[in-house]
Design goal:
Elements (H helix, E strand, L loop, with lengths): L5 H9 L19 E10 L16 E8 L2 E5 L2 E5 L3 E5 L5 E4 L5 E10 L14 E2 L2 H16 L4 H19 L12 H13 L6 H8 L3 H12 L3 H19 L4 H7 L5 H12 L3 H7 L13
Helix pairs in contact: 2-3, 5-6
């Protein structure tokens, strides 16, 4: 028979005798991740695939960098993710990868859906250390994902991973730099922008949310740290990048499709954001434009 580890014996010795053996701890609230996908990236060139440019989707992306540092550009932040660190990208966060320390990498990706986004709010744009317990859980998760016929065990292991990760971050002291925008309002604004056939204006979004435009502006800046006008312009520019990469439309047509009043205003905004003209970006064939860092006001 295998020997019980000394650590387990020590923990068991601390357990008290229960006053009521049939009355224990109950689950008050339990949310589980769903639709879990695990995959790897072996080369830096593969990080921005299969879609060229900055990704935007409704799923969480858990990144575990096991080898080689790479910069993860999330919205308007550049986060240097080193080997032995992880990062959780939230739904509707634009992200792409740049400045790899080497071409050969070993990165684990776990994408999933999760209904209780607020529970993970403290992890937004916050890299974390892949501690030994987290590494062990990640290894169990990958093994279960490869061997189990059902999703039950991988989902439960990912739920434990997120619970440990949440405790790890909540135990850290708060700092001004660690303040994370609340996801609720930005998520709803992004969803409205994505569902609309034409880029919605601030009045349209305020009407859909049942609040006044001035209230929307104030709430968005307070919770997200940026004006809603600038955020909507960023969404339109990212939409334009997709059309420039994949679509047959002329630049003037893309400008109108993405809600710009003229090709001149579109070209000016695009150059300010990405450092090149829309036509030069289309002809360059590069993976993605790197957004310039703009100081928030």
């Amino acid at each position: 028979m295998p020997k019980t580890s000394p650590h387990l014996k020590e923990l068991v010795s601390r357990l008290p005798q229960p006053q009521h053996q049939l009355v224990g701890r109950t689950v008050t609230k339990l949310a589980l991740p769903d639709n879990v996908v695990c995959f790897q990236r072996r080369t830096a060139a593969d990080l921005n695939k299969p879609r060229r440019g900055r990704a935007l989707h409704h799923r969480f992306v858990l990144i575990c960098a096991l080898r080689t540092a790479v910069t993860v550009c999330v919205d308007d932040r550049s986060i240097r993710l080193r080997a032995g660190e992880g990062l959780l990208v939230f739904p509707f966060q634009f992200h792409h990868y740049a400045e790899p320390a080497g071409e050969t990498i070993s990165w684990l990706f776990v994408t999933f859906e999760y209904s209780e986004m607020d529970e993970l709010a403290a992890l937004r744009c916050q890299p974390f250390e892949l501690t030994s317990p987290l590494r062990a859980l990640a290894a169990e998760l990958v093994a279960a994902y490869e061997t189990e016929r059902t999703a039950d065990l991988p989902v439960l292991l990912l739920a434990v991973f997120l619970a440990r990760l949440r405790r790890l971050k909540l135990a850290l002291p708060a700092s001004p730099d660690a303040a994370a925008p609340q996801p609720g309002l930005m998520l709803r604004v992004n969803q409205l922008a994505q569902r609309s056939s034409e880029p919605p204006g601030i009045k349209d979004i305020a009407r859909a949310l049942g609040i006044s435009p001035s209230h929307l502006r104030a709430r968005f800046r307070a919770s997200c740290g940026v004006s809603i006008g600038r955020h909507l312009r960023h969404l339109r520019l990212e939409q334009a990048c997709g059309h420039l990469r994949l679509g047959p439309q002329r630049v003037s047509e893309i400008a109108e499709l993405c809600g710009f009043s003229s090709i001149y205003s579109f070209s000016r905004a695009f150059r300010v954001a990405y450092g090149v003209s829309p036509l030069a970006y289309r002809h360059s064939g590069r993976a993605a434009p790197r957004a310039r860092r703009v100081r928030r006001r």
